[in-house]
Specification:
172 residues, 38% helix, mainly alpha
Length: 172
């Protein structure tokens, strides 16, 4: 495995351009369904894990205050994905401010920071929103760090359906 090295702004821009140009899975307008909302379309956003985060590493990764800031991708990386995702999902509201480019498996639970399979434009509107999901993420992370829930159980629950993840894991 190659060591992680942060990209310079120019390298990040080049990487984003290459990703957009070279990714054969880039969807066309409306190819992802909004029928699953408040969840993402599982065919477009299946979720992905950060291999550095395992049950044996939680005490040195996700359970360390501020750790997610060390892996969170910059908006220069996520904003182009958000714009493309709004098109892919066929949202009628195309204002980028109305969405959060969210990690389906959150960084707090060791979600893959830069994998497009783990990122999608989650609406800020509706009854269950990106803001609602944030509280679920924190409760699950705390349960993992306190040993009440395994990392695998928390990841599976949130990846499957974040709206029921607390009940499924027995902490909500």
């Amino acid at each position: 495995m190659r060591p992680y090295r942060p990209l310079t702004a120019l390298a990040s821009l080049a990487f984003t351009a290459a990703l957009c140009a070279a990714t054969p899975a880039a969807a066309l307008a409306g190819t992802c369904s909004t029928a699953y909302l408040p969840l993402p379309d599982p065919g477009c956003t299946p979720g992905a894990y950060n291999p550095a985060v395992t049950q044996s590493t939680v005490d040195s990764t996700i359970c360390v205050s501020g750790w997610t800031a060390t892996v969170r991708p910059p908006t220069s990386y996520t904003n182009p994905l958000k714009t493309q995702g709004i098109t892919d999902y066929g949202y009628t509201d195309t204002s980028v401010a109305d969405y959060e480019e969210d990690h389906l498996v959150p960084l707090e639970l060791g979600g893959a920071p830069r994998d497009p399979d783990n990122l999608w434009p989650e609406p800020h509107y509706g009854t269950k929103t990106a803001y609602s999901k944030d509280g679920v993420e924190t409760k699950l992370k705390n349960a993992v760090c306190n040993g009440r829930v395994t990392l695998a159980a928390a990841r599976t629950a949130i990846r499957t359906n974040w709206t029921t993840a607390l009940q499924v894991t027995g902490i909500g």
